[in-house]
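Q&A log
Question type: sequence-to-structure
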Amino acid sequence: MIPASAANVNVGPATRGAKAARVSSPVVDTNKQERIKVGSVDDKTVNWSASFASCGGNHAVQSSTIVYEIAPGGHLGWHTDATEETQYIVAGTGELRMESGKYPVGPGSVFVLPTNVRHDLANTGTEPLRAVAFFAAAMFTQDFDSVMLPPKSHILGTPNREG
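Response status: OK
Response body:
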């Protein structure tokens, strides 16, 4: 969800069987992490911000975790993920959009998205929609329908994906 060039975490190359990087604490205070704002070249309603709590080489070996927030009236943008994804809605109300239908979500909602299933998440409320996304890979990419900013590309993903 965040372009490699804009990542705010120090990650090393992740390899199969690698050990997690040594850290002083296994707890990541995501409230202190800088969020990267994400938008779209051709869809001004794409409006969210995110940061990586973990990914390969940074607190994790075989998974990635992203905390993000969607502004009221905004959405992530239609995309597919190159790995299975589980999301937990912390606050706010929204709508999970898939080719199979639209599904309301709110605090406490959990949903699982299989690999390469096209989807979007929209904030339908008046408060920010806050969520945590868990990915079943240390490195992955996302392919968006729109050109995303940053980095002016259809492809986003973990900061270590190019390492």
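Response note: Residues 1-21 have pLDDT under 50 and may be disordered.
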